[in-house]
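PT: before anyone asks, these are the final sequences, not the draft ones from last week. 578 residues across everything. Please model them as a single complex and drop the result in this thread when it's through.
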Amino acid sequence: MIKGKIHKFGANIDTDAIIPSRYANLTVPAELGQHCLEGAAPEFSQQVRPGDIIMATTNFGCGSSREVAPISIKGAGVACVVAKTFARIFFRNAINIALPLLECAEAVDNTDPGDEVQIDLSSGTIRNMTKGKEFAAAAYPDFLRSIIDAGGLIEYTKAKK
Amino acid sequence: MTIAEQILAVHAGKKKVTTGEFVNIKVDLVMAHDLTAGIAIQQFKKTGFGKVFDPAKVVLVMDHYVPNKDVMCATQNIGLRAFAREQGIVFFPEGRGGIEHVILPEKGLVLPGEVVVGADSHTCTYGALGAFSTGMGSTDIAVAMATGEIWMKVPPTIKFVYNGELPPWISGKDLILLTIGRIGVDGALYSAMEFSGEAISQLSMDSRLTMANMAIEAGGKAGICAVDDKTVAYVKERSDRPFTVYEPESDGQYAQVFEFDVTVLEPQVALPHIPENVRPVSAVSDVKIDQAVIGSCTNGRIEDLRTAAQILKGKTIHPDVRCIVIPGSQQVYLDAMHEGLVDIFVAAGAAVSTPTCGPCVGGYMGILGPGEKCIATTNRNFQGRMGSPESEIYLSGPAVAAASALTGVITHPREVM
Ligand code: SF4
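LR: through. Structure below.
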């Protein structure tokens, strides 16, 4: 069960905003986390606490293929990203490194920054504790579920070998 | 089936695939570059495979931060170079290649009907050759390097039809900016874009590569042009490997169809800070610029440099503008020299660089300071991409960038000819 505060973002948060290219060749997740979302909200990495949740509207993670984008989010301690839609390379990268993502427009529209939210990943249930509302995110297709359950693409591939 | 579906079906070993289906795809080529290969190699080692699936089908291109821009890159690149040597993969270090998406087509490494995956979002460029190519992250690429296979979800295809005759000064960049301006940066999210119509037939291969390159800027998974005589001539000059041409089938299902008339199209410019913020050049002609960048995997090919040289020939760059010209590959550089283009650039007062991504990704070779404005033939104008978060990037084709370098404000090329 994930439980944390909401940090809210708008549409088209690109990977340069998530992790500017001047940090793109860092490899330690915690170091990347210190610059997470610097281009969109310079104060974010100071305010975020382990277990917090990012919410954004459409096309979150658009732009480059840099895997350091989801790694920096994980490195900052974020437990889950909820958005209306994700850019596809970002989506793959997050699944591959086991950063949970949920698509749920209703939850995004009905949640404010700072709200306390609880997420049950296995059912896709998003509960806004502050507002006392509950939302259902689309479930992962079985195939993606099997990658997540294996602990990411590398583990999944090793198991198939 | 659409072109994308036919290619994916063959590579999945199936007769038919349908939109939304998850398939395991055999890939013909896997690519990474100096910024993404570090994590890819780390992850590759974790797979326990030891050796890449086929060294002739794995490519490593040093292009983003090379020639080594600082000690940190230099240190990291030692590991990449060692990996390339150990594995015997296809390797393009500085001075031997150039920008990945310029050199892979140029060297005949991608052919029609093939599937290419790369740890770079602009891997979609090779769709211009009638291939299915798409960008992924480093972990995906590590697995593709190890196994020669990767999972994909079959995308829906959106068709884009460009009617009419291309007016002067209009290139592939203007058509793709027009398109992104119309459908938005997520207008083709998760989808394959298929470019067709008489205007596409008129485009050179260089211009088609420019269009496919920016499919990702509309959220696209791939940007594909049907193969025609120009494509066949282009690839036959570069490779003697056999290839298969896929035509769109009559039962092909398109999620959407967009039509454009290009007959009276003006050169297009994308304003900061998002590639969908597109206007005709006449609407932004009062914007003063500090820098003009002509290059990148979008517009660093010989046609682009010829266009820029045609405009700069015998003239002098505006005293308040730094104009930086970056040939996309060693071959483009050589051709530009033989054709006298480099002379024109240097005489006009431009800084001509060795092939590299350079300022496009804010690495080096033309970083912007606070408040500065740049017109660039690159593909992304995200805030801070080329340096200071307080700088601004305007995207255009090479004709507008060169004309603007002469006047110091964003300019239609016909005004300086
Ligand atoms: S030129 Fe720019 S967009 Fe193209 S590969 Fe290099 S950094 Fe990426």
